Amino acid sequence: MTANSHDAEHQRLIDQSVEIARLAGSLAHEIKNPLSVILMNMDLLAEDLAEGSTPRERRALTKVSTVRSQCKRLQNLLDDFLNFARAVKLELKPTNLNDVVSEVLDFVDSQMQEAGVEVIRHLASDLPSVLVDRQKIQAAILNLLLNAQQAMPEGGQLWVRTRETPQSVALDLIDTGSGIDDETLLHIFEPFYSTKASGSGLGLPTTRRIIEGHNGAISVQSKPGHGTQFTLEFPLPARIGGSERPAGGA
Ligand SMILES: Nc1ncnc2c1ncn2[C@@H]1O[C@H](COP(=O)(O)OP(=O)(O)OP(=O)(O)O)[C@@H](O)[C@H]1O
Ligand SMILES: [Mg+2]
């Protein structure tokens, strides 16, 4: 293939996947409307049946409850999917990663305590600013924190460390959970891949899209039975635009 026809083929594939993503997004959206009508009617039916006292009405109520909880599950799945399929539009601002990390950790603090997870913070002082979309990064980190917690059903430790590297600011999240075997590791970033009974499998793919949207990188190392380390890296601004590091950077 010549360079030109190769470029054209590449562009055609990009256009095609954008179109498929758009279709999938509108399909998900179209399913949500009738689903919410079904759910509303199930709620009304449950109210009616709750007033009845015959065994038959009680049996019917149990069935309606099952349908309701499955509808809710589908609603959550569609929300997660729409969140994943939506183009990532970033509002980048010079930010100290420590602030973002602290905010998410405060948010999950009581949940972690409840789950018996001890969170150990090692936040580097004098961290240079990086250009990030605060909300998107918080969502990305939250996915990783929840995964870590879910990997430690009996509790454990979660180390949260920020550090500066020559080209980036990095965040390590190290848990003492179940770990991930090599076969599973191959799939964890695939949409809808989950080893959990009620997982949508969109947490890590969404996180990766957000991080890569920042020109950053996400990597993982794991030892089954011992734990897992996820590392996020954000490029220093000087490396992206060739501009000076913002004031306040070390
Ligand atoms: N810290 C971790 N320790 C062990 N396994 C993990 C960890 N993080 C992710 N995994 C594995 O990667 C899989 C995919 O994770 P992902 O967050 O994408 O989906 P999920 O957690 O299963 O579902 P969802 O996040 O949508 O509720 C998980 O099902 C789990 O097997
Ligand atoms: Mg998850």
Question: TL;DR?
Answer:
With 250 residues, this protein is an alpha+beta fold. Helices cover 54% and strands 18% of the residues.
Model description:
- This protein has two domains: 83 residues, Orthogonal Bundle (Helix Hairpins), CATH 1.10.287; 149 residues, 2-Layer Sandwich (Heat Shock Protein 90), CATH 3.30.565.10.
- The protein contains seven helices and seven strands, in the order ααβαββαββααββα.
- A hairpin with a 3-residue loop joins β6 and β7.
- α1 packs antiparallel against α2, α3 packs parallel to α4 and α4 packs antiparallel against α6.
- By secondary structure, it is of the alpha+beta class.
- The protein is globular and about 70 Å long.
- The strands form two sheets. It has a five-stranded mixed β-sheet. Strands 1-3 form a two-stranded antiparallel ribbon.
- The protein binds adenosine-5'-triphosphate and magnesium ion.
- Magnesium ion binds next to α4.
- Adenosine-5'-triphosphate (ATP) binds next to α4 and α6.
